[in-house]
Amino acid sequence: MARPEDALAPDLPAEHVPGDVADVPGATPGPAETWLRIVQVHDRITRRVDSALHRRHDLSLTGYEALRRIAEAPGERATMGEVAEALGISRAGVTSTVSRLVAEGYVVRERSSGDKRLLHARLTPAGRAKVEEARPTHDGLVAHLLTLLGDDAAVVTDALARVSAAARTRR
User: Fold this and answer.
1) Domains, in order of start, for the chain
2) Beta bridge partners of 122
3) Residue 156: CA atoms inside 13 Å, Cβ hemisphere, count?
4) What is the pLDDT of residues 73-93, one digit of tens each?
């Protein structure tokens, strides 16, 4: 009886047909290909979600993420450094983002009572309403796109968390 693998390589004896894709040269992506795939996925998902948030809520993805992080912080207020760290952007980037959110009335800036050097962003009622209005668009689209991971979601998430933790460590 013919085996499926025989049809793939009819001129080779069965012992010359690799049983594992990892044994085929070039079949397993190298670091450059893996990096490119990670960057492409991030870029494509980011652009798609950003576009949906702009169209439906007049809000950028970065603005939404900043509002969400502030909303989830104790007392709905966070330092600029905390927001920058949560979003993975520079302090200048978070300053620009928060300035737009202040101009829209979604956030107010406050000095810390204990340390006047610390500047906090506090959510306003309008900011709370905006993040709640936009949350289903963000979460629904992200969840839809990530369903393509299928049963591999937990494995991918765990692997990316390990890489993220290692990259955060300064050496």
Assistant:
1) 55-138 (1.10.10.10)
2) 77, 108
3) 12
4) 999 999 999 999 899 898 889
